Amino acid sequence: MSSYDVAVIGSGPGGYVAAIRCAQLGMKTALIEKYSTLGGTCLNVGCIPSKALLDSSHHYEDAIKHFEEHGIEVGDVKFNLEKMIARKQSVVDVTTKGIEFLMGKNEIDVYQGVGSFKDATHIDIAGEKNLTIEAKNTIIATGSKPSTLPFINIDKERIITSTEALKLPEVPKHLVVIGGGVIGLELGQVYKRLGAEVTVVEYMDRIIPTMDGAQSKELLKVFKKQKVKFALSHGVTAVERDGDEITIKATNNKKGVDVEFKADYVLVAVGRRAYTDGLNLDAVGIKTDERGKVEVNEHLQTNVSNIYAIGDVIKGAMLAHKAEEEGTLVAEILAGQKPHIDYNLIPGVVYTWPEVASVGKTEEQLKEAGVAYKSGQFPMRALGRSRASGDTDGFVKILADKETDEVLGVHMVGARVADLIAEGVTAMEFRASAEDIARMSHAHPTYAEAVKEAALAATEDRPIHI
Ligand code: FAD
Ligand code: NAD
Question: Is Repeat included in the keywords of this UniProt record (predicted)?
Answer without folding.
Answer: no
